[in-house]
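The instructor's notes for this session suggest beginning with a concrete chain rather than abstract definitions. Hand out the sequence below and ask the class to guess, before any prediction is shown, which regions might be ordered.
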Amino acid sequence: MPEANINSILAADFGSVNTRALLFDVVEGEYRLVAQARSRTTIDSPVDDVHQGLLTVLNEMAAATGRRFVDEQGNVIRPEQSDRVGVDYFLTTASAGHALKAVLVGLYPGHDLVAAQRAIAPFYIEVAATVHLEDGLGPKGRLNRIVHSRPQLILITGGADGGARAVLLEMLSVVRQALVLLPMGSRPIVIFAGNSSLSASAREMLSQQAEVLIAPNIVGSGEQAWEAARKALAEAADDHKRHGRSFLRIAAMTDSGILPTARGVETMTAFFSRALRQAVLAIDIGSARSMLALADDGRAWTGLHNDIGMGHSAASALELVGEEAVKEWLPFSPLRGELAQYVLNKGLLLESAPADMRERAIDYALLRASLRYLLSAAREQGLSSVDPARVGMVLVAGAAITGSGQGALDLLMLSDALQSEGVLRVKADPYGALPTLGALAAVKPAAVVQLANSSVLDEVGTLIRVSGKAAAEATALKVSARLESGELLQREIADGDVWHLPLQSKASAEVSIQARRGLSIGGKRRLRMRLAGGRGGLLFDARLDTLAKESSMTVRAVKMLRWFAAVSGDDEPVVIPESWLTAPEAKT
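After discussion, reveal the predicted structure:
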């Protein structure tokens, strides 16, 4: 359908736990989010058909809007009819389902395969094996490794354009032999993104055995080459979903193909980075999977983790981050086995919420530790040269981060996890719109701009965090805030403390900040700027390394509960439950 004829857009995102549907339409000349709904994803047995969950969501949305979306057979009606039946465009994204199993083929692991790992990052691809010149296998061993891996995708890269040809041709020969040995009905898609002078040779050698996609060389190339390679990867990911039982009905209806959720989030991270001319971080911690996307100068890096989540994957998350990383942010000493039992329950009761203050503290500590683990993994993998502590905006998604109901608490958690330096603006994605907007960019870019600047994203607030060293209990920051009403608020914030200034989403304040000697806000001792509010308002954080100085659990508990009270607006005296001070050896 021509872009000019697309007004109403139905978007569905299929997650591991929830299926979300969003309806966008033109209202008073601009695109707006006009309806949304969600229900459980029906990808597991006995249904194993995500279409069933989609029908539940669309029926709920139809009841709320009085608009019909599907025909008698359950197919999405397109284009929109004159009586407001159907939609003009049906867009689908997904993170649910099995990952695409891949073999990466290159010349050198520290160069070619690093580029390959970065290219596949937003596509829910599991690397089953790697083949390269330093693997110590030889041609026969490499052949066996590919065949025994039973890949659904082979990504080949390596070599400089116009450079040496012989070694890469040898690798292509091994891949061709492997394709011949694999069963005809289950041969992988092959993507060649290596030395461009061998593109024709790769197609000639491999196309009789498998489908071959050619992309520019991703090693040492610019952003256009990366985008072309990721377009080929998106085609392979879509093909994988289309041939799986779970997505057969959806594949027959979608106008966009089944695009990876993480790819859409990555696209929007780069969008905001270009618009703000700042580094931007996106965080999505789901039930089963988590992702980070970092962008600077419009270029993005993505990291996906199938074993970190706050529901399905809570147990594996605890195993990865380690109990000590969780304990260091608890205001009590957990009982033996308490953390393991808690994450086991979270995996079994996916929709459950923390039952009391103790469970809320464990949830907070596990989320903080998981996010720090994700950031550390991104640095170790060389996914980005951007320092997460110095980003100017964070986009948060997933109920684990956005579902606290208290924006200031979300700001506090991000401050704890990121150890940010300076001024940080935070937006949340309560409707799961980021992947949809990223996918929509290729179809209707004007809609993306209008929706990103409207209320589809939630303004959480602004975090101002001081860094450096100062004497304990001394004044760390002096703050003056002139509200739009003209009222002047002044506050001195001591080392080890936080101050929460409630400021609504459409409000702002003229803020002057002075840090004491030895401290700074993003490298500056004095700042004067207009800051935007949100449901979490403004949060000034001068805690520095306060917890690291304390060994007494009682003192730690008092301080942490005081911080939580400050962001929740609770003025009552801090009371520590007696059970929190019970030694872990006392119970089993």
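Then share the key points. Residues 263-568 form a domain with the Nucleotidyltransferase; domain 5 fold (CATH 3.30.420.40). Residues 357-380 form the longest helix (24 residues).
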